[in-house]
Structure formats: structure tokens, C-alpha cells
Amino acid sequence: MSRTSLMAALLALAAAAPVVHAAKADANDARARDIFAKLISYKTSVGFDQVPAMSEYLASQFRAAGFPDADIHILPVGKTNSMVVRYRGDGSGGKPILLMAHMDVVTAKPEDWERDPFKLIEENGYFYGRGTSDVKDGVATLTSTFLRLKSEGFVPTRDLVIVFSGDEETEMATIRDLANNHRDMIDAEYALNSDGGGGTLEENGKPRMYSVQTAEKTYASFELTTHNPGGHSSQPRADNAIYDLADALKKVQTYRFPTMWNDTTLAAFKAVGAATPGATGEAMRKFAANPRDEAAANVLAGIPYEVGKTRTTCIPTLLRGGHADNALPQSATATVNCRIFPGVAIDDVRKTLQDLAGSSVEVKTIGSPTASDASPLRPDVMTAVTKVVHQLHPGVAVVPSQESGATDGLYLRAAGIPTYGVSGMFLKDSDSFAHGLNERIPVKGYYDGLDHWYLLVKELAGRKS
């Protein structure tokens, strides 16, 4: 099915979708809340080494629900670990589907918060706590979905495989270990990621739009280093490592990577542009109609939260240089962080930086970043997600989106497993506190998310009547 016909089908589905809300199961909701509260209590940020303890707690929940030990795997990597849980199907529906989240969170300093970040607190219609939105709600929801389906005797038409990573916020070593060393455990037709996509709400609480994350940019950092013989600061010379580095960075600053697009970004700009007023909305619509429209691309390039959807971006983030107040610097180094458009080779970006900086500047890639292409707009996934979203939020536009940041999904895409961010959470822009102080989500959003995943799993892996 072409992109045009797919989007037409989704629009038709939006118009025809019945308003059928998932029936609430109070016992399941209560259990899901208890699990959520327990997960928030674990300090799974770097340095506390509590991911293993949280994994053991989750394993106990799966065992108690009837999952055999042979289908529950905890895979250590250093001081953390990943977790893989298989829900056996009858095999009639094809290869497995992965369901993803990560167990770790970013650091939270309790003295800076208004509430204890490691205690789930319900207040004024919100759940507060570190990880409520990024992304222990996903861990709790996926776990609760498996437990609910198991209690109902549900037999999926294909295996469902939970993948919980343990260091998404830092090294991403656990997802790389799974992709490189345990592919047999996670081999699947595609993956559904709770750490991507989701819905947005207007400030009055009305659902605005739902995005399916089908692509994300490659995260890669480079070091630019200048060298100089140095000398005494009382005897300055024309060439100076710090000046030379500054000159190189000015060239990076003025360079604009070529405009790029894919099916995901064009569909997103078309849908979002239709609902966006003013010059920004007009530029989105024009770019979607003709991505070679230079004027439209220039408008979008000037908007920080839109520029990443139109090109690769590189920006200096760290500086170090010199060795003494009274000495000319012998070297100076800048870290340049790039968010690379899907399909662009990492080394091509390094070469561009080298050309800009000049041959006298050393440019090297930091670590071993991984690139991944955009996932195809699968009609089965897009249609199923649209149907479920409209059951819970009738008529909301469902559009593909490209993430300018990075999630574990990039490693699965690189490993050949298409990945789709399909979080069940709807948030206002003003409620987006992931990685920040007083992180929170709407209580209603959490329970709606339980319904979202329950319905989505049954839609994709249940028998059609």
C-alpha cells in the first residue's frame, strides 16, 4: 500500500471508528497502580545499581501470574541488566511482536523536588515521581497487560516478547547486548516501543493529536582538537590552539546540512501543519507539498523544535583546552554533538566536519554510535494503532513522527527489526517534565494507557471474530 493510500485509509478509519471505550477492570487497575508505585520506589538511576532488584520484583510478578521460569530471563551487563519475558502464542500469526520499555531513569536529587521523587504520589489528578513519564509507566503498563491477559486465558496468535532494558538513559549497553548477543530471544517481525510516540492534549484537556514514532535520528558526538607547541604566555604567537579551535567552530556554526525528508516527516508536517496557525503552519504545509521549497525549509530551520525534522544538526556542547594560566595552550578540544537524519552515514558527517574544520584540526568520532533507517509505515500497525486510539479518543488525528532524540528503538531498527513508538499516554505540553523536577503524568492518562495496550495487543495478536 502506498503512503498516499495508507493515509487515506487512516482518515477513513478516523471518520468511521465507533466510540467504544475499553471496559474498566477495577482489580486490574488496582494491581497496575500497586506495580507502578513499587517501580517508582526503586532508585534505578546511574550509581544506585537497583535495576537488578527491580527486575527480580518484576520476575516475581510474572511467576505468580503463571509465566514459567524458562520464559523469564534476566541478562546482566555490568552492574545493570535487561529483562526478557515471553508470552507464548499458538504461532498462527507469524513472528513475535516485541513490547519495549526501559527500567532506568535519570538522576533525581530529592532536595530539589517538592515531593519525594521515589514515592508515587497522587495529587490533584496527577501521579508524581521520577520515571512516571520516562518511562516506568511503560514498564508498569506492559507488565500489567501481560498479567491481565494471562489471567483471562488469552492465547495470542504469535509470541509476545517484553524487552525491558536497564541503561537507556546512559550507555544503552543492555539493548546492544540483546541485539548483538541474544538475537534469538528478541527476533521479531516488529517492535512496539512505550518510550516513543503518544498523544498531546490541548491545555483545556482536549486531545489534539496522536503520533506514531517511526523514525529517530542517530546520536553521534565528535571531538575537534587543535594542537600547538605552546610556550610562555608572555610571548604570544599568531597561531594559538584555542583561537584555531574557535575558528573551526565558527565554520561549523555557519554550515547548514542539506534539507532531507522521508515518508514520516512529510506525513507529519502535512497533518501538524493543518492544525498549526501562522507562518509556521504555512511552512509545514508547503514543505509537505514540496520539500524542495527552500523558503519553507528556511522557516522550519529557524525553529529549534522543528529544524531537526528537516536535516542533520551539529552543535558544540563541551569545551576543554590549555593547561596553565601562564602558558600558551598546547591543545584545545570541543565536543560536537550531532543528531543525524535517518539514512545518513555517520562517517559522512565526520568527513563534513573535517572539511569544515580544515586539515590542521583533528576530527574523530567518540565511541561507536549506531545509525538506523526509518521504519516503514506498515499498514497493519498503523491501522491497528489508529483503531485503538479512536476507541479511546474518537477522531484524533494519528500521524507518523520522527524523534530528534534517541531511544533503544534505534538499535532494534539497526538490527533489522522495525520499531514503532506507540505510547498510550496523552500529555499537555505544560505537563512535560521528563528528566526534570517534579515529573508527573495525568492519573487518567495512566489508566487510559492500560486500556490502550490491552486493546492494541488484542488487535494485533488476537483472533479475529
UniProtKB/TrEMBL annotation:
Signal sequence range: 1-22
Pfam family, any one: M20_dimer
Bilayer-crossing regions: none
Domain Peptidase M20 dimerisation: 215-358
Keyword Oxidoreductase: no
UniProt keyword terms in alphabetical order: Hydrolase, Metal-binding, Protease, Signal, Zinc
Keyword field contains Glycoprotein: no
PANTHER family per the UniProt record, alphabetical: N-FATTY-ACYL-AMINO ACID SYNTHASE/HYDROLASE PM20D1 (PTHR45962), N-FATTY-ACYL-AMINO ACID SYNTHASE_HYDROLASE PM20D1 (PTHR45962:SF1)
Family statement drawn from the similarity comment of this UniProt entry: Belongs to the peptidase M20A family.
Protein known as: M20/M25/M40 family metallo-hydrolase
